[in-house]
Design a protein that fits this description.
mainly beta; Immunoglobulin-like; Lipoxygenase-1; 5 domains; about 0% helix; elongated
């Protein structure tokens, strides 16, 4: 609910206003909005009841003038089984509401509805689950806990805790409790910082409320295989599962009976109450005059035999009487342990001693775990085997992984380019294999500064040894001829190779840093254009010979072509049909020169783009001009022609009169 208050004079924002719901007044903090005149606002939360609700806001200013306003709200809401309201009379303080289910202690993560657990799941629907509307930490409240349909029969507790006074001292808490929308309890108490108030108990389903109900907490633990029957609780008899711990809340001075339920496979040992071991039977009675803890110890015992064969010693942890402290075994030891005890055995090796494995019971193959974990589900015998060892340093210089065989812990692998130290049994044989392949070439082993060509190698561990495998990466070169040139590939491991014109070849197993030579071979009219070499980047080369350094896989493409050919027909004729030609014709082009005699004819074949010169020659000869492709060219001699098509040229001449 929210609203505003306007006054000529100032109003105390903490104590100057109240809000009354159905005759129950509470402090109403105000917020100053402006001071000319004095305008205030307020906002609070109210828990309405079924039917008509009367709400009155009253304010008193500094001159003791009062004003009020009343509204009536009709609420169509379900009847609430338990509703509790908490308010207090101090600003900047934090009090907390707690509604606790039958038999559960305060602050229980399931059974206590409070600020850290405002909507616990007590039943199958929302009506069975309590709800704290909000956690007010700044003073006054109100805080409401509502439970529409309590799901448990028994005694519910309502408590108040003074969480923090923020240095503001004591505060008086007021609690009102409605049962089925009828106010049946109202009480107050002045609390100090961090003080509890056992405010009331609510018996359900009767709804009877008792003020000042005090409870005590009983924590029951089954240590072992016994389940425990708990009798005399207000919520009825309860059972603590074997190996579990449960806390119960019981009325002060209640007599609670505890029975440790042993059986054929579970033996009752003793009860420990509040740290004191009792000399009693399975059943004890506990008077709840204070908080108590009770522990039933039940055991099924098995024998663990530990044998040390060659190790410096064995640390045994997880023993019930030792806690986290290990027990040191030099030779042999026997332990009697409860069933399901988990024991950890850690063999001490190093300084020339190595654990090679654990032999457990009658197992023929050693276990390689270190430490080793044993669960006491039967009698067990465990033997630790340790031997004298030497160090082996294994390195991969290059691309080969190395398989190391014969180690106590099983085979190991050294990654390419890495070094690893291993401990191997004295005089044991270790096999090292450099794992080469299509992309990696084994070169040699260096063992204690001596070179060996064989692979694998075997080392006898009679002292410290160092072994290094040298391997060279192998790369692939793909060569493609795009056009008419063949390609000569030189300096390959398999010798020189030729890629035919228009062909493609892949050459594998080329050692790192090999320089391969590629030469484009022109044959006939074929013309080389350029090289294109692909790796991470693309490079080009216009020379016929290219070199590729094999630092990775490469692709090289040779581009070439055969030029287009055109025809040139050259003829020497007379200036008219009756005249006798007298000029010879000299035909010149790059790389050639031919003279056609007077009256002669010759046909030539030239590549596209070839420049050709025609020169009419003759003494005491009248030159009349040129015709090119039926077009007269009278003023040009010599005649220049670029071969961009088929052409015909006629030189006209005659003997002078």
């Amino acid at each position: 609910m929210s609203g505003s208050v306007t006054s000529t004079n100032a109003i105390n924002t903490g104590t100057g206003a109240t809000i009354t719901l159905n005759g129950n007044p509470n402090s109403l903090p105000l917020t100053l909005v402006s001071s000319s005149p004095y305008d205030y606002s307020f906002s609070t939360q109210l828990e309405l009841v079924q039917g008509s609700n009367s709400i009155t806001v009253t304010a008193t200013d500094s001159q003791n003038h009062s004003g009020s306003d009343t509204v009536t709200v009709n609420a169509d809401i379900p009847i609430i089984g338990i509703r509790a309201e908490l308010t207090w009379n101090t600003n900047d303080t934090d009090l907390d509401s707690h509604l606790i289910a039958p038999c559960y202690p305060q602050n229980d993560p399931f059974g206590d509805c409070y600020y850290a657990n405002p909507n616990p799941n007590w039943g199958g629907n929302s009506a069975s689950n309590p709800s704290l509307d909000r956690d007010v930490t700044t003073g006054y409240g109100p805080e409401y806990i509502v439970l529409q349909s309590p799901p448990f029969d028994g005694v519910y507790q309502y408590k108040v805790y003074y969480y923090s006074d923020h240095g503001n001292g004591p505060s008086t808490a007021t609690v009102r409790i409605w049962i089925n929308d009828e106010l049946v309890f109202e009480g107050n108490r002045t609390l100090s910082d961090e003080q509890w108030w056992d405010c009331a108990s609510i018996d359900w389903p009767s709804g009877n409320i008792t003020a000042g109900y005090s409870t005590r907490t009983l924590t029951v633990t089954s240590n072992g295989c016994c389940q425990i029957l708990v009798e005399g609780l207000p919520c009825g008899n309860q059972t603590v599962p074997a190996g579990d711990t449960t806390a119960f809340s019981a009325p002060e001075n209640t007599q609670v009976t505890l029975t440790a339920q042993s059986g054929d496979f579970c033996q009752f040992g003793n009860w420990t109450v509040d740290g004191e071991v009792l000399d009693s039977g399975n059943t004890i009675e506990v008077l709840m005059n204070t908080d108590h803890s009770a522990v039933a110890a039940c055991t099924a015992s098995y024998t663990l035999t530990v044998i040390n064969d060659g190790c410096w010693g064995i640390n045994v942890t997880g023993l019930p009487d030792q806690g986290q402290e290990p027990e040191w075994v030099d030779g042999n030891a026997t332990f009697v342990l409860p069933a399901d005890t988990v024991v950890t055995l850690d063999a001490s090796d190093g300084d020339g001693i190595l654990l090679t494995g654990w032999y457990v019971d009658a197992e023929g193959t050693p276990r390689l775990d270190d430490p080793l974990t044993i669960t006491m589900d039967a009698d067990h015998q465990v033997t630790a085997i340790c031997v004298h060892v030497h160090t082996l340093s294994v390195s991969s210089n290059g691309c080969c992984p190395i398989l190391v065989e014969g180690l106590p812990g099983g085979n190991q692998t050294v990654d390419p380019g890495n070094s690893t130290y291993f401990y191997a049994p004295e005089n044991g044989n270790i096999t090292l294999t450099a794992q080469s392949g299509d992309s990696c070439q084994f070169d040699n082993w260096t063992i204690d500064n001596e070179i060996y060509e064989n692979n694998p190698v075997q080392i006898t561990m009679d002292s410290y040894h160092e072994a290094t495998a040298v391997c060279t990466p192998l790369y692939t070169l793909t060569v493609t001829s795009e056009g008419c040139c063949s390609v000569l590939v030189s300096n390959l491991p398999q010798g020189n190779q030729t890629v035919p014109a228009g062909g493609n070849s892949t050459f594998s197993g080329i050692p790192q840093d090999t320089v391969v030579t590629l030469e484009a071979v022109e044959e006939g009219n074929c013309t080389f254009d350029y090289w294109e070499v692909h790796s991470f980047e693309v490079t080009s080369d216009i020379t016929k010979v290219a070199q590729v350094t094999m630092d990775q896989d490469h692709t090289a493409i040779c581009y070439s072509h055969v030029p287009t050919t055109y025809t040139l027909s050259v003829t020497s004729v007379g200036c008219s049909p009756s005249y006798i030609p007298c000029c010879s014709i000299e035909v010149t082009w790059n790389g050639g020169n031919v003279t056609i005699p007077a009256g002669g004819n010759q046909t030539f074949f030239f590549a596209q783009g070839t420049p050709v010169t025609l020169d009419a020659l003759g003494e005491e000869c009248d030159f009349c001009g040129w015709y090119l492709d039926d077009n007269e060219v009278p003023l040009q001699d010599p005649l220049q022609i670029t071969m961009d098509a088929d052409h015909e040229a006629w030189a006209y001449s005659s003997i002078p009169w």
